[in-house]
Amino acid sequence: MADIKEDCGAPNSESQHTQKHNPKPKRVASLDIFRGLTVALMILVDDAGEEWPVIGHAPWNGCTLADFVMPFFLFIVGMAIALALKRIQGRAEAIRKIIFRTIKLLFWGLLLQGGYSHAPDKLTYGVDMKMIRWCGILQRIALAYLLVALVEILTRCSVPKDLSPAGKLSVFKLYIWHWIFAACVLSVYLAVLYGIYVPDWHFRVKNTDSPDFGKVLTVACSVRGKLDPPCNAVGYIDRIVLGSNHMYPHPAWKRSKACTMSSPHEGPFRSESTMNKRMMAY
C-alpha cells in the first residue's frame, strides 16, 4: 500500500496518458466471491425465511441468518469504495462518478422496491405515487455509499502516502478525520434516538387478508428514548418525513409478540388495549 500514489488535485497530462494505456485493473476475486455468496444468502432467506423462521429476520430482538445480509452488503460497498476510488486521480472526476453511481442505485431501488411491480404473478405494473416506497434497501445503500465515498474523497489528502506501520495507534492517527466523522455521526444518532419524544400515533390496517382490514388502530407511545419497534425515534422520524404510506408495509413490530399471537409471523392483531399494554412493557 506504500506504493499507491494519490493526487488530490486535477490529474496532469502524464497521469491521463498512463490511465489510457494501462490495462484494465484486475478485480479482487475474494470480494467478488463474497458478493456472490451474499447474494445467494439473500435469495435463500427471502425464499425460505417464511417457512423456516430460524433463518428469517428476527421480529426485533435477536439475530438470525437473514440479519447478516444487509451488513454484508454494506461491508462490500465499503471495500469497493476504497479499492475503486484510489484509481481515480482527479477529485472532480471521482465526485462525478460517485454522484452518477448514487443516482443509478436510487433509480434501481425505486424501480425494484418502490412498488412498480404490484403483483408480478398477475403481470400488473405501475407506480402509485401515494404508496411508493422511497427508502428501500438499495436506496439506503445508495445514501450510505454517497456519504462514505464523499468522505473518502475529501479526506484522502490527509492520509500519508507512506502507510507503513507507525505504532499501535497508527490506524487512528492515519485516518483521524474518518474516525472524527464516524464519531460525529454516532453522536448525532444517539442524541436523536434517546432525545426525541415519540407521541401516540395511529395507523390503518391495509392488509386485505387481515380480519382487522380497514380499522384504525392506536399505538400508545408517549415516551422518550425507548428502543422497541413501534415507539423508537427512528420510526417516528420516518413517519414524519416519509409518511406511513411510503414505508415498508410489513415492519418488524407487526410480527412482535406485543402485536400478534402469530409471532414471529404476521397475523391478526391483538385487541387494541392488550396490544398497547404489551407495547408499554416491551
Concise overview:
With 282 residues, this protein is mainly alpha-helical. Helices cover 46% and strands 6% of the residues. It contains nine helices and six strands; from the N terminus they run H-H-H-H-E-E-H-H-H-E-E-E-E-H-H.
Which strand order does the major sheet show?
Answer: 1-2
Structural class: mainly alpha
Q: State the end-to-end distance.
A: 49 Å
> Helical region count?
9
Rg value: 23 Å
Instruction: Please write the string of helix (H) and strand (E) elements.
Output: HHHHEEHHHEEEEHH
The overall average pLDDT, rounded, is 79
Query: How much helix, percentage-wise, in residues?
Result: 40-55%
| 3D shape | globular
Largest sheet: 2 strands, antiparallel
Q: Which percent range describes the beta-strand content?
A: 5-15%
| Residue runs with pLDDT of under 50 for 5 or more positions | 1-6
Number of strands: 6
Structure notes:
The protein is mostly helical and 282 residues long. The chain is 46% helix and 6% strand. The chain has 9 helices and 6 strands. The strands form 3 sheets. A two-stranded antiparallel sheet has the order 1-2. The chain has a two-stranded antiparallel sheet with strand order 3-6. β1 (117-119) and β2 form a beta hairpin. α2 (29-48) packs antiparallel against α3 (69-85) and α3 (69-85) runs parallel beside α5. The radius of gyration is 23 Å and the shape is globular. The model is unreliable at 1-6 (pLDDT under 50).
